[in-house]
Design goal:
The chain is an alpha+beta fold. It has helices at about 1-15, 20-25, 35-45, and strands at about 25-30, 45, 55, 60-65, 70-80, 80-90, 115, 125-130, 135-140.
Amino acid sequence: MKKLTAFLLLLCLGCTKNTSVSNLEGTYASPTRSKLNVALGKLKGESYPSFDTLQLNADSTCVFRNCAMAMSGNWKTSGDSVLVYYNKKRFNIDSLNTDPKYIEFLKCDSIPYRFKISRNANSLTWKMKTNEGTTIVNRLIRQ
């Protein structure tokens, strides 16, 4: 019985996907959402960004892009999450980078963005509650 238990334990450990840094490198992108999916999200108080990408590089650098801006920095894993520390932000429309109304949005926080790693490491999910009470759910799928 002990041999069977040990065998089953080793079998389970051998089949578990390791979400180490090398397994997470690559590009992740937000999927296209259907109108039904967006409507159901609104009923739940959730919003889903589109056209976002996150590139995780082997040297622990990363670039996040969306329709408004590009942010670059570094990343590392912590438990079941990827922590992203941005050190540079730029608007895609260059004139906004020097507009006094938008300068505050270019500040980089020392607090990382936490993307939860899916069980199979094929997607990363980031959630944020807005002041209006909506939860932004950004699920990025490995490309």
